Amino acid sequence: MDILLWRHAEAEQGAPDLKRKLTARGEKQAAQLAEWLKQHAPKKLRILSSPALRCQQTAHALGQPFTTDQRLGTDGTVSNLLAAIDWPDGGERAVLVVGHQPLLGQAAALLLSGEEANWTIKKGALWWLSKRTRPGTAQMVLTAVIPPDFGL
């Protein structure tokens, strides 16, 4: 199973938090990373997004259908994220999660190291994790990290 964690691109400051929009720079970041994903992401990709407007706008940059999942909101937990992606029983299907810090960093830490920690994923960045099987054991590996201003 491939798990792609995409933190929403740069957003405006202000309140209410769930209504914050992407900045012009954030829109460019989302579009650039979406182009990279179109070329490199697995073909059968399930896309899940936080209900926050900035995440919806980031996911929309892909131009593909996605599902809004309340469990991925700003108050989401790692256990909720894992349930949303059906981990570890999700099979071979790849999933892209568009969400927030600290949730995405905590999930990456747990999946890669076995312990939840406060790892940082920059705004607009993507971390791609892949599950692989070695004789007698399954492992998660970091396949790619794409920075927020990649190619800008």
- Share of helical residues: 25-40%
Rg from alpha-carbon coordinates: 14 Å
Return the domain count. Answer: 1
Structure annotation, total helices:
4
**CATH superfamily caption:** Phosphoglycerate mutase-like
Structural class: alpha/beta
Q: pLDDT average, as an integer?
A: 94
CATH level 1 name:
Alpha Beta
Task: Please describe the biggest sheet, giving its number of strands, its sense, and whether it closes into a barrel.
Answer: 6 strands, mixed
Low-pLDDT windows of residues = none
Assign an overall shape: globular
What portion of the residues fall into strands of 2 or more residues?
A: 25-35%
What fold name stands as the CATH topology?
Rossmann fold
Number of strands: 6
Structural write-up:
The structure is a single chain. 28% of the residues lie in helices and 25% in strands. With 152 residues, it is of the alpha/beta class. The chain has a single domain (2-140), classed as Phosphoglycerate mutase-like (Rossmann fold). Strands 3-2-4-1-5-6 form a 6-stranded mixed β-sheet. The longest helix has 17 residues, at 24-40. The termini are far apart.
Helix/strand layout:
Layout: E1 2-7, H1 24-40, E2 45-49, H2 53-60, E3 67-68, H3 78-84, E4 94-99, H4 103-113, E5 126-134, E6 137-146
Parallel strand pairs: 1-4, 2-3, 2-4
Antiparallel strand pairs: 1-5, 5-6
